[in-house]
Amino acid sequence: EEDEEEEEDDGSGVRVTPALLKATTGEFSLESILLLRLRGRGIAHLGCLADCSNLEWLDLSDNAIAGLAPLATLRALAVLNLAGNRVASVEPLRGCRSLRQLNLAGNRLRSLRQLRCLQGLRHLESLRLRDPLGNLGNPLCAAPTYRTALAAMLPGLKAIDGQRVAGRGSELFRLCRELDAVLDADAVPAAPAEPPQPWVQAGFWEPRPPRRSAVLEEATRQLGQALRECRELGRRADDSIAQAQRVLGRRHHGNFGF
C-alpha cells in the first residue's frame, strides 16, 4: 500500500479569506454561514474556513485543494463536495462528526487505507469516489472490487458512487433480481386468480348522516331566541319613534304666538 501523502503549501493559488467568504455569502459574521458554494474558484488553500463553525453544506469542487486541515473543526458539516481537487489524505475529515454525504471523485486517493479515518463517522451514508459522467475517479478505483471492500470497511454506507448498497433501494433491487430468476425458471401453472376487490369498503363514498350535537342544538335555540328578542326590540323602538314624532308635531302647530 502507498503511504499517505499531501502536497505541500507552495503559496500559489487562491486562499479562502474572510473577505472572500463575506463577498460570496453576504454574511457579516463567518459563524452565520450555513451554506457555502466555492466551486471552480482556483482555491488551493482553505485559509480561514475553520471559522465557519456552523457550516452545514460546502461545495469546494473543481479547485486545486490538497490540504483539508481547516475542515477538522467543522462539527456541523453534513454535506461536503471535494470532487475534482488534489486530495491525497482525508485524515482531517475524522473531525466532521455530522458528515452524511461526501464526494471525493477526481482526487488522488490511492488505497482504501487512506479512508479508514472515516470509520468513526457514524452518520456517513453516501461516499463517492468515482463519477463516470464527469470522467472523475481516484487511483484506488482501478481495483475492480474496491466497492465491495469499501462497503465492508464502512458498513454504515447506503450508497457508493451513487449506487445503493443498503436500505430500501437495495432491497427492491434484490427483490427484482429474485423475481427475474423466478420468471426465467420453468413456468408453473398458476392458481385461478381471485376476482378483483374494491380498494375501499362498501359505502365509503356514501354521504354520512349529519351528527346530532346537544351543544349545537342548544346554540341554535339560543340564537333563535336572541333573534326574536331583537325583532321585538326593533318593533318597540319603531313605535316609540312614531309616538314621539306625533307629539312633536302637535307642539309645533300650537306655537304660533312666539
What structural keywords apply?
2 domains, 9% strand, Leucine-rich repeat, LRR (right-handed beta-alpha superhelix), disordered N terminus, 7-stranded mixed beta sheet, 9 strands, 4 helices, alpha/beta, 258 residues
Protein described:
- With 258 residues, this protein is of the alpha/beta class.
- The protein has 4 helices and 9 strands; from the N terminus they run βαββββββαββαα.
- It has a 7-stranded mixed beta sheet. A two-stranded parallel ribbon has the order 1-3.
- Strand 8 (159-160) and strand 9 form a beta hairpin.
- The longest helix has 40 residues, at 214-253.
- The radius of gyration is 38 Å and the shape is elongated.
- Residues 1-9 have low confidence and may be disordered.
- It comes from Malurus elegans (Red-winged fairywren).
- Pfam families: LRR_9.
